[in-house]
Amino acid sequence: MVLQILPYDLTICKIPNTSELKLEKDIYFIGKTDEELSLVCKTEDTPNHTLAREDGWRGFRIQSELDFSLTGILSKISTVLAESKIGIFAVSTYNTDYVLVKKKSLVAAIDALTKAGYDVADKF
Q1: Which has the closest alpha carbon to 61: 30, 96, 11?
Q2: Beta bridge partners of 102
Q3: Distance separating alpha carbons of residues 79 and 114, to the nearest angstrom
Q4: How far apart are CA 43 and CA 22, in angstroms?
Q5: pTM
Q6: Residue-wise pLDDT tens digits, 55-96
Q7: What is the dihedral of CA 99, 105, 110, 116, to 10 degrees?
Q8: How far apart are CA 36 and CA 11, in angstroms?
Q9: C-beta separation of 11 from 54 below 8 A
């Protein structure tokens, strides 16, 4: 399985509303519940008005469309990273999954995943 390193820094934040979002941007993950409205985006595309914000994330994209019948993909990746004491933030789309790690842990994450047999590609 190929994990593609995303070539930009990411921010995870809570936002009051979607009025500042520009959906033509490359990457926005929006999560809404009865308690909050969360956003993951390129750091440079973070809205000016946030309720909370955490910068310094990098991400991997699983480079294939994942069938909904597949099981354990995120579990295996998160286990490899957990065993290396690397925390994650995971998001999913219809097609695939994304795993975010803190920027300071990116090299260690690449090393752990490579040792576990994953093909980590840095060419985007």
Answers
A1: 96
A2: 57
A3: 14
A4: 13
A5: 0.89
A6: 999 999 987 654 545 556 788 999 999 999 999 999 998 888
A7: -80
A8: 16
A9: yes
CB 114 within 8 A of CB 1: no
d(CA 22, CA 18): 9
78: helix, coil or strand?
A: helix
Closest CA to 85 of 72, 68, 67, 104: 104
Q: Which two tokens stand for residue 24?
A: 């033509």
Q: What CATH number belongs to 2-121?
A: 3.30.2130.10
Residue 26 phi, psi dihedral angles, 5° rounding? -60, -40
pLDDT at 65 (0 to 100): 53
pLDDT in tens, 34-45: 999 999 999 999
**What's the whole-number average pLDDT of the chain?**
91
DSSP structure class, residue 7: S
